[in-house]
Design a protein that fits this description.
The chain is of the alpha+beta class. The protein has seven helices and 37 strands. The strands form nine sheets. The chain has a five-stranded antiparallel beta sheet, with no helix packed on it. The protein has a four-stranded antiparallel beta sheet with strand order 3-2-1-36, with no helix packed on it. It has a four-stranded antiparallel beta sheet with strand order 4-5-6-7, with no helix packed on it. The chain is globular and about 95 Å long.
Length: 643
């Protein structure tokens, strides 16, 4: 039996109260095993789960997680955001922008506190704050330095001088950044630069030890207002989600999103690319696995497409389509869950990822909620329905890795629910239980849809359409926003990668459920048009044969002239009486030669740009175009053309 400390614990924030609920595999959940009272506005636990920082109107109080005993306090009023450093030695607090009552100048509302002494090490002024861009302080994994974004610069503070001073790193237009968690390729930071004065937005990877760094890897994109930067845990790869509130293609009310992939290794800068998502539409969610070897995307118009990719941005597994908008990994990168919350019905499908990248479904259920999080033991999933998103049925539920609900606690009002982290080494990675696998095999295949969910009950059928008297029966609708029966998913091989790429070709969008109905009059008219077209075609063929016979000598002479212009040495007798240069075939050859000449001129311009810049800032498709110069020249010469 696990100890009480090792038992997974749920933290639930109620109006003014923070409650702990302990749960284990061999004991039911306890209601409010311990709690913190007194105007709780927000909370944040340490990564090892030993302490909890509780924000109130007058201070940030520190409590022990084991007994809810108060350990200390940070005397800072009006704190709206809090964050901890990676090793929980420093606390970052942020207040609303305000003016200093004594000087009238903007007050320093962003502060970094050293918890061992309770002193402020860094104080900074923020004129605007937003939950979407929090936290504003980026840390190195070992807390050796922190970075704050300022106007056109990054302010880098070092622990060597106790964060007393900072040095400037000039990156013009920088709006946000994310420090690489690894130093394998140096001290790297990913920075986003929005559009300005007609120049496109961009994301790049920089060495922040230099005062004026140049990007080691860079990706530019248009129609972008902001970006989200996510490193994998190994610090070898970066995902950049560029987004805009307005969709220029007028296809989505929620704006436009694109996902981009970059590698930290400067020798692999050519691998920078836009992720070739298999379905057109918005990017709902993307998450790296905790070990950094894979990431999952949920993207496309509903039903959304979910795909597993490896750390080199190669598609590995296709989960199919379904009503999903969220993905979550368990702490050991073994299990993952696809969920559809918000305005979706709450379908949850749980998968087991194998070491070779293939995935096997473990279970499925339906549980409408707002948030979801895997437990530190990696065996259960916490889903919560919270206010103010939903004012009714506030509760949290605990679901096993095979889709069975094992606990539920209801509240009148629940603002937030999450797991209390556990110290490293508390739990071990475990596969599915043998008993569970045996019972699943004994149960046999169940009736399920493409996503594994039980089929929905049939909808209401009006009396006149029922088949009670043997009359006609209405056909079921062929369109569904939730499921696509033809999209079964599965492991992605070389052949299926091509299929995924072909799905990127835009397809005409029609009214859902609308189909053209054939009628006798329409069929009759179609036959008349076909007969008339056939008759006209026969007349045209006869006219063409007469014309070609009368003009055969001219065609041969034209062919001989073309050979002479191209330096050919063939005799006139060898020239076939083929279509003239002004005919269809000749026009196609001439058009192809012009296109090849145009491409070769463009390649010459790209090569000149490469020689001037040393290849910096060039896109992958531009380098591929330069590499194709030999093939284009060979084709041009085979057609008799020249530059």
């Amino acid at each position: 039996k696990e100890s009480n400390f090792a038992m997974p614990t749920v933290l639930a924030r109620l109006p003014g109260v923070l409650a702990q609920h302990k749960h284990g595999e061999d004991c039911p959940i306890d209601k409010a095993a311990s709690s913190v009272d007194g105007g709780v506005q927000s909370f944040i636990p340490t990564p090892d789960g030993s302490r909890i920082f509780v924000t109130t109107a007058d201070a940030v109080d520190i409590y022990g997680a084991a007994d809810s005993k108060k350990l200390g306090s940070i005397p800072e009023k009006g704190v709206v955001f809090t964050a901890l450093s990676p090793q929980a030695n420093y606390l970052v607090t942020c207040q609303k922008p305000m003016k200093n009552p004594e000087t009238g100048e903007p007050a320093k509302n962003l502060k970094v506190w050293e918890l061992s002494t309770g002193e402020v090490r860094v104080a900074h002024t923020l004129r605007q704050i937003s939950k979407d861009t929090w936290p504003y302080v980026q840390w190195e994994a070992d807390e050796g330095a922190l970075v704050i974004v300022a106007t056109n610069t990054l302010q880098v503070y070092s622990r060597e001088d106790n964060f007393a001073t900072y040095r400037k790193v000039s990156i013009k237009g920088v709006a946000s950044c994310a420090i690489c968690p690894s130093k394998e390729f140096g001290h790297l930071v990913a920075a986003f630069i929005p559009e300005a004065k007609g120049s496109p937005a961009s994301a790049g990877i920089y060495d922040y030890t230099k005062p004026e760094p140049t990007p080691r890897t860079r990706k530019g994109f248009f129609r972008t207002q902001g970006a989200s930067l996510k490193w994998n845990s190994k610090g070898t790869a970066l995902l950049v989600l560029s987004f805009s509130d307005f969709d220029a293609t007028n296809q989505s009310y929620y704006g436009e999103q694109k996902l981009h992939f970059m590698l930290a290794d400067p020798a692999k800068a050519d691998a920078t690319t836009t992720v070739a998502l298999p379905k057109e539409g918005p990017v709902h969610d993307f998450q790296w696995s905790p070990n950094g070897d894979y990431f999952v995307t949920v993207a496309g118009f509903m039903p959304a497409k979910s795909t597993l990719w490896d750390a080199n941005c190669r598609p590995v597994y296709d989960f199919g389509s379904g009503p999903f908008s969220m993905v979550r990994w368990n702490p050991f990168s073994r299990f993952l869950s696809l969920m559809g919350f918000g305005n979706l019905p709450g379908d949850i499908v749980l998968w087991d990822k194998k070491t070779n990248g293939s995935c096997k479904q473990m279970g499925a259920t339906r549980c409408p909620a707002v948030s979801a999080e895997w437990a530190p033991d990696g065996r259960t999933l916490l889903v919560a329905t919270t206010a103010p998103r939903l004012r009714v049925d506030n509760s949290f539920k605990i679901i096993s890795y095979y889709g069975e609900q094992v606990a539920r606690v209801d509240f009148d009002t629940l603002f937030e629910a999450c797991w209390l982290p556990a110290p490293p080494g508390t739990y071990q990675d475990r596969p599915q239980s043998p008993e569970r696998l045996a019972s699943a095999a004994a149960a046999g295949p169940a009736k399920a849809t493409a996503t594994g969910l039980a089929p929905k009950p049939a909808g209401y059928v009006p009396p006149h359409a029922r088949n009670a008297d043997g009359g006609p029966k209405l056909a079921p609708p062929s369109f569904s926003l939730g499921f696509d029966g033809s999209d079964r998913g599965g492991r992605i091989g070389a052949a299926k990668v091509g299929v995924l790429q072909s799905n990127l070709t835009p397809k005409p969008r029609t009214v859902p459920g609308f189909e053209f109905a054939d009628s006798k009059a329409a069929n009759k008219n179609a036959k008349k048009r076909a007969n008339k077209k056939k008759k006209d075609g026969e007349q045209d063929e006869g006219a063409k044969s007469t014309t070609s016979t009368s003009e055969a000598p001219d065609a041969a002479s034209v062919g001989m002239a073309s050979l002479d212009l191209q330096g050919g040495a063939q005799a006139a007798a060898e020239v076939p009486a083929a279509p003239a240069q002004g005919g269809e075939d000749g026009a196609d050859v001439t058009k192809r030669i012009r296109n090849l000449q145009k491409k070769i001129r463009q390649i010459a311009q790209l090569k000149e740009k490469r020689d001037q810049t040393g290849g910096a800032g060039m896109e992958t498709d531009q380098l591929a175009k330069i590499a194709s110069e030999g093939a284009l020249l060979a084709e041009l010469h085979s057609l008799g053309g020249s530059m």
